[in-house]
Amino acid sequence: MSMDRKIKAIVYNELIKIGNNYWFIYKDAIYSFDYTKMKITREKEIELPNAYLDLFCFMATIDEKIILSPFQTNNIGIYNLKTKNFNFLNLGNENLWFRNVIAYKNKVFILPGAMNNRILVLNNLDSIKYISIEGWRVNVKKYESTSEYAIQDKYLWVTAHYSNLVLKLNMETEHYEFIEIGENIYGYTGITLDGEYIWLAESNKGALIKYNIDNGNMTKYDAPNNLCYDSSIKSYVHFKIFNFKNYIISIPALCNQMTILDKRKEKIEIVDTDFFDSIIKNDNGNKNINYPRCSFGNKIDERTLWIQRNIDGEIACIDIEDFSYKIFSLEIDKKYISDIYTKLYRNEKMILENKFNVLNSLTCYLSCINRSMLKKNTDIIGRIIWSEM
Asked: What is the C-alpha separation between 26 and 161, in angstroms, rounded?
């Protein structure tokens, strides 16, 4: 099959390694990826009616099952790796936009993405309850709630874009407390742990923060002067940060490059790589594009980092010692995307309730559909949409 019949999938959660393969979600299906053979297998379609495509984006694994966070659906998805079947737990009228999934012993914690401040807890993959978080003070009223997380033994640490309060949750007792780090003008995105230290990526100015868990001492490392960013629309300089033996490495959200902090020198520098040059050129000098430069990052081992560009789906496999890299991508057959949009746009109820979503996504449908079917399908779609506008 020729390359023009494939698309480069852009995924929004780090790939999960199970056995020798990496697993990810894209649109309406779950896939496995053999990096050695560069082979992608469509493992299972997610057959769940909904008005949106990206029903699930975030995932984790527990007890030979993959748990899918309800992003644009009110169902938790559970995929059994042995039977290759899906099971869904319905949340009733629960709000959407849950994000990160964390598996701990017999529990699964699912973090909120919007400002509902409730953590969803799944016990033994069948019993659902919530932890209501009170007092999470935010300095700016924005849409996002939680950002990233880190795990230390039984403790889950969670950041928020617009708060200097970092949540510390005991995953066994389900009790929590807030650790106040820095001034109230701060908020944090990326977080990683390094022994007795927490490292944080500050939202607004892009500094990296080193916080001693035992004594509360904090050290702030300002972002390099030549790191280009604009947080006037959204406080989101760094997307994530990763802890390596000698380095803390960030990948960009609304800034233009990766940064590296050498723990031995205690200095932040911009990473010398041209991987993000295409994004910088595409911006045409406009830094106010409210769109993260990266979609995911994966620490593969102590020397290797994967990063996907949001602009084109290219993934860099980076050697963090010299920042040389090679490119690959997650290539999905366009037929699958065509099938998705065909089903969506023939769903009359969905079209009537979500006209804007339909029109906004129509371009993708037209680019994927078999040209011989184009007139027939667009006639059907157009007639339903415009007769009800």
From this structure: 26
Rounded-to-integer distance, Cα 354 and Cα 362, Å: 12
Say what the pLDDT of residue 344 is.
60
* Under 8 Å between Cβ of 230 and 288: yes
- In this structure, what are the phi and psi dihedrals at residue 337, rounded to the nearest 5 degrees? -70, -40
Contacts 24+ apart (CB under 8 A), 203-206: 203/147, 203/161, 203/162, 203/231, 203/235, 203/236, 203/237, 204/231, 204/235, 204/237, 205/231, 205/237, 206/237, 206/238, 206/255, 206/259
Instruction: Please report the sign of the dihedral spanned by the C-alpha atoms of residue 230, residue 297, residue 76, residue 203.
Output: negative
CA-CA distance, 20 to 32, in Å (whole number)? 10
Q: How far apart are CA 106 and CA 295, in angstroms?
A: 29
Rounded distance between C-alpha atoms, residue 308 and residue 325, angstroms: 12
pTM of the shown model: 0.85
| 24: pLDDT strictly greater than 70 | yes
Which residues, including other chains, have CB under 8 Å from residue 383's CB and lie 6 or more apart? none
Quick count: other Cβ atoms within 10 Å of Cβ 119?
A: 23
Contact 256, 276 (CB under 8 A): yes
Question: Looking at residues 350-355, what average pLDDT do you find?
Answer: 49
